[in-house]
Design goal:
Layout lengths: L2 H5 L11 H8 L4 H11 L8 H15 L5 H6 L3 H16 L3 H16 L5 H13 L2 H11 L9 E2 L1 H8 L5 H13 L12 E2 H5 L7 H10 L5
Helix pairs in contact: 2-3, 2-4, 3-6, 4-6, 4-7, 6-7, 6-8
């Protein structure tokens, strides 16, 4: 019998189709996390995509399993966390992108590890996350990369992003950037505005304070 089944944690490849199956799966999670999860799951419609929810919960479990923080254990028992968990899992159930579901797992794990932010701020981050596509998150990650060094005497944000995102067409990058600006996650004078080569490399300067807070919540997704 595989190690995951011995522990009672179903691997992502095994469907979790009913609330009963899910309750059985979470019973083997970290005890202080399994209780709130079971409470939330009892209110989720059976019509939602339980396998997606199961994958994310297994991911969260792996991220916080070794956590020994008493503050975190107390926090997951609060109404704030249980309501945030319910909202997040409902979005997860509708999310088709596996990459984006990993970001939801990182969001929940990050909230458990550092629960000090105001509840309304977390809801704002969650609403933004619902609107974003996986490519938006790739674009933000590209903007957070360290400068690669001077390339000539001048450059533009568009040139840097095209180099860091070689698999995304330039037209698509422009569309993603416009949407990120609409969400107030990035701010700049224009993708094609020419500037010094050094300025064109330091794209993290164009991420807004809200964007940086958003990234702080989801930074574990790639780990």
């Amino acid at each position: 019998m595989p190690e995951e089944e011995e522990r009672g944690i179903l691997p992502p490849s095994k469907p979790l189709e009913t609330a009963y199956d899910m309750a059985s799966a979470v019973s083997s999670m970290v005890p202080w996390l399994g209780g709130p999860v079971s409470l939330v799951l009892s209110g989720i419609s059976l019509g939602l995509k339980m396998e997606r929810v199961g994958q994310v919960l297994t991911d969260v479990d792996a991220r916080v399993r070794e956590l020994e923080s008493e503050a975190a254990k107390e926090y997951v028992q609060t109404t704030d966390f249980q309501e945030l968990l319910e909202r997040t899992l409902r979005q997860v159930a509708q999310e088709r992108s596996e990459d984006k579901r990993k970001v939801y797992a990182a969001f929940l794990a990050g909230d458990i590890k550092s629960p000090c932010a105001p509840y309304d701020e977390k809801l704002r981050v969650l609403r933004i996350l619902e609107e974003l596509q996986a490519d938006h998150i790739k674009t933000l990650s590209a903007m957070m990369q360290e400068p690669e060094g001077m390339r000539g005497f001048s450059g533009s944000i568009a040139q840097t992003l095209s180099r860091r995102l070689p698999d995304i067409p330039s037209e698509r990058i422009a569309d993603l950037d416009a949407q990120l600006r609409d969400l107030q996650l990035v701010s700049h004078g224009g993708l094609n505005t020419m500037m010094t080569a050094n300025g064109a490399e330091q794209l993290f300067n164009y991420i807004t304070p809200l964007g940086k807070r958003f990234i702080a919540y989801i930074h574990e997704a790639g780990q």
